Amino acid sequence: MSDYIKIHPEDSVAVALAPLEKGTSVTLSDCTLTLTEDIPQGHKFSLCHISCGDSVIKYGNPIGIAVENIKKGSWVHTHNIKTGLGDLLTYTYNKTDTTLPPSEDVSFMGFRRTDGKVGVRNEIWIIPTVGCVNNVATAIAEQAKPYIQDTVNDVVAFPHPYGCSQMGDDQENTRQILADLINHPNAGGVLVLGLGCENSNISELKKYIGEYDEKRVRFLVAQECDDEIAEALHIIEDLSTYAGSFKREPISCSELIIGMKCGGSDGLSGITANPTVGAFSDLLISKGGTTILTEVPEMFGAETLLMNRCENEAVFEKTVDLINDFKNYFTSHNQTIYENPSPGNKCGGISTLEDKSLGCTQKSGKSAVKGVLSYGEAVHTKGLNLLSAPGNDLVASTALAASGAHIVLFTTGRGTPFASPVPTIKISTNSALHAKKNNWIDFNCGVMTEGTSLDTLKQNLFDYVIAVASGEKVKAEKAGFHDMAIFKQGVTL
After folding, report:
1. Residue 224 belongs to a domain with what CATH number?
2. Angle CA(176)–CA(182)–CA(188) in degrees, nearest 5?
3. Is 200 strand, coil or helix?
4. Neighbouring residues of 317: CB distance < 8 A, sequence distance ≥ 6
5. Would the pTM count as exceeding 0.70?
6. In a domain? residue 105
7. Pairing status of strand 424-428 against strand 443-444
8. Which positions ≥6 away from 390 have C-beta within 8 Å?
9. Which of 251, 234, 248 is nearest to 153 (CA)?
10. Could you report the per-residue pLDDT of 476-486, keeping only the tens digit for each?
11. Residue 484: inside a domain
């Protein structure tokens, strides 16, 4: 395997797959050059002279504009290119062919709920309605560990700082996300823990929950109890008995819903891990399954590629609104739309938001975009869906779970220990990260730079997802990590 790669025939830059020293001779099918500078792993170098003001091409698309003349063989990064993106844009629907042949069904061992939904875990969740009872919820979860029995996997509390002193859409978002988690089929039993005086109290929250199984979802108001922890433990004992009655059974992978997210990206994200997740997405969809792509601000600069894959004009218009609404969100707070990439991204070789977005959207594969979801909206269309949520890792991953994802695939070039409400598979873009943080990383795509093919990695990842859906714990679960975060969008009273 070469130490460098030209991703697309029209690219004016190549990417170092390993650190390259100044003076290294580079030979490609259409180009020979000598590097004029050291090139770190994941970073770019020019394949031709690029004049000041010219577009820099990677993935076959512009990733920025040269701010100075760039000599052939030079390092191309933040010091000599800048974003070429504008603000609100006008888009035209140019539908591309997204036809993918169906493939053979595969089963996993999951839990069938009484409402027909499917779960890949059988946990008991404690959902606080308000941050005031966070410590109580955590204490209940710790003291309830003896009730992990039969097929019950864990008892987990999901503390958060919201549920009161909120207004308008901000409060609506909190209530919707909490309701989504209460209804999530990975929970075999749920205790909704309220304080009693909060805005998002249990009576209000029930309006968002809708119909529910009274054996599966129980409620407790702390202000109405002499000893809320003791009463909660009695409820958990009942919930454990109920949840323990569920057994794993064969279920078609067409019922799987997988969220896709990246964080701490590097210059290899769009070459190894993200294309692997995209190929996985296409494979699952070919079997009738569903995937969800989010982090809208990291679609900026690559949005037209998604728009042209929309199934029809109605989905295209929803995608346009998805992009422009998020741009308006930035400007309404007097913030720069393109304040991205992060310092860690830049250190890893990502130079502009276009560079980041074109790599990020590789996770979507080649399938048609079938649906566009608002924040907190449950997925209802099979195939590839786009979800409105920010790039923040915890907020976006929670949003994926709230929309129905059973599992989240999280690609990273820098590494992170965080979890989400559902099993979160950490996928490394490079082998060095996998070796160093083996306690964080579940699956290594860095081997693609060492000769492993995309087809092999796609199938290996698919097999691993089926194993996780059937009960195999990911690293974060083994460490006991469960996180959640809600998108804060309004004032605090």
Report:
1. 3.40.50
2. 160
3. coil
4. none
5. yes
6. no
7. parallel
8. 295, 296, 297, 326, 396, 487
9. 248
10. 999 999 999 99
11. no
